[in-house]
Amino acid sequence: MGLILKFVLKNISEKKSRTLLIILSILISSGLFFSANAFAASISKMYDEMLRLSVGTSDIIIKANMKSPSQFFSLRYAQDYSDQTQYVIGTINKSADYKPVINEQSVAINLEGITLEDLQRWNPISFSATYHLNSFVGKKIIISQNTASQYGLKAGDTLDLTINSNKQRFLICGIANPVGIFSDESKGLNAIVPKDVLGKLYSEEGKVNCAYVKVKKSADLPQVINSLSQVYNKYDVKEAFSPEQIASLTNQIITPFKLVVAIVTFMCMFIIYSSFKVIIAERLPVIGTLRSIGATRRTTNFILLLESALYGAIGGLLGCGVGIGLLYLMSSAISSGFAQGAGVSVQVNPLLLLSTLIFAFILCLFSSLLPIIQVSRIPVKDIVLNSVEKVKDKKLINVVLGLLFLTTSIVVPKFAFGKMAIVADTACLVISIAGIFLLVPYLIAWFIKLTEGIYTLVFGNIGTLALKNLRDNKSMMTSLSLLIIGGASLLMVNTFCSSLSKQLVSIYVDYQKFDVLIEKMDNNVDKNLEHLLYSVDGVTGVYRYFEKDDIKITNKNGSIGTIAGIDITKHLDYMRIDSDMNLTDELKQLESERSILLTYTLRDKFNLKIGDVLDLKMSEDKGSIPYTVIGFYNTAESFGDIALVSEKYFQADTGGQYNAKILVKTSKNPRDVENAIKNDYGQYHFSIQTRQEEQVGILHKINPILSILTGFLVLAMFIGLIGIFNNFIIGFISRRRSLGILRSVGMNKLQMMKMILIESATVGILGGITGVLAGILLANNMTYILQAISMRIVMQYSLSYMAASIIVSFAVAVIASVSPALKASKNSIIQSIKFE
Asked: What is the pTM of this model?
């Protein structure tokens, strides 16, 4: 065994460039495999941390809704469940106005009324400076470092606030570090004051307007929610945040990465496969010698498999290290975007590390298995006498399978619905790549037949010879395959990134007809504010509508991302709706009965038709309510995971458990109107931004994800380029004797260079054009996969991307052939002819 291991290690170390290529292939594919799978856990962790910035360690939130008799309530009913809860903490959440400079616009500060002991149990913070903090009673306030630095405040200073229309003076007793509720103040400043002080200012001593509950056992959570819903039946009692919602968000982000990993893995498998074919071709004399002195086929197969396993082990171990580094970069990028405010979380699971090593082993062994099996079938006599016949791979079965795979990948996604859709669509993407690989030899043969006359006319006999040299040229076929899949992947990812960005911009440019968005209002404020806004200079229109997220469809075992309750007389003036149907009658029908308009995305996801009934769980304290599907429409909003119902039925069926939004049209600069609304009605405490500000914000969140996805592809392209250069070099080495013979019968160096460049240029152009067609196919499959996870992306193909893909493919092929061609032209004719 020791002798065999020494022999294998010597073989690995001899061909350093090929060893490096194989290990790089395994390293990159296993690194991407690890980082993509670990990224899901890291995203979930960061989303969890981001959501807990506002809900702390609690599991349940109790708040007033639109139908509550009062914003305030007592905690005594919730405290009766102390045997099932770790804590029941009540807070008073209100807003105050702060004017840093007299006669300037006031700044809204969100106040959290809570005792310091409860705060540290619920959502702990730390301090950079304190002043008499030991006794957190009376008119004291804790502000953030951000607020202190922005307005030149320090511990011990006083802060004048307007609360409930009365001016109050507070002593700053603490400057908090950016943790907990102070982690992210991008949408407003936060501060903490004693709960009893805030209660007195609103004449609600002993009551709260928000309660946070943490259960002792996770298994008791549904029961506790149900019990509290009964005693607080006129208030919202809900889970602090839904794990299903986090899983859905995570899935939408991670799916494109997994698709890229699948494509990269296919590319690496092909590189390893072609490299092992060369390795085995070189080892045939050694294999023949071993077999002739008594070694069995099993022994020689074991030696080759051991070499493959060692490549897998080295590449897998290095891949784990690279994967952890990539994971950190990905987590850092996501923490500055979607998970802003959460710390960078790198979730390294030992089981995933083990899975990555196993993946690397399987990848290498599976890729090398076919060449090993093929050589084991060669009789020892043929190996020793060097009379191994090259069996042509072109078989009818390969054509049939290739065309079948491509046809399946085009047709099946159109008929795949429900939970099996993502499995079927992903399988179709994979087999489409397999189909392309199978058809490459025939693609070259068909191209030669079609263009032979043109090449003879344009390039003369050298062109004809160059074209025929491509037939059955394994290295050229391998290079062509890599160019096709590389170009296809590049086009697919660039098209996806570009389409996603354009679609997000389209929401704000093409679908939204308003200028200013107001949301996150206190309960019962929205209706009053809607009427008051007409008095603001520059406001020409106001529309209030309602939304609720994550609505369960009980008879379809699924959910709708967002349902909007709309006013049918106003909605089309503020939001665009596209449909193949004339929706005038359908919109009227929304008002007359419980009916629903769905996007085409939801129609395809649940395989629905007009007249179907959806049982919707619109409220936690009500059963499922049937809504009839009356039509379908297109929208870029929420990636198509949205539906419309009448506001009348929406308000009745949600029981006040919803979010209100106000859309404002302006005749003046939206920023000026935004500032005027803040100045006139800032005391109502809401979040406001212009349409342009919202657009910039969402692009800021999505761009890091697109950058990471592009980075994945760059790694794939890097290994693909190495593989292409390696194949061109191997191809010219294997053709050294035939090139010498051509030189011996009169071909000069210039003609040889011309022939080689024509060959490589042909491969480059053919690879580029076919790569574009394959890229469109992959992007089409990707559309269906994303649709299966409720992400409707309309792929917008760019001619400039297609042209760039063809040019890059051409340039890579030509550049890769220059060095081998120069070497071939300088070789001695006699030495070349003698070369075996």
From this structure: 0.70
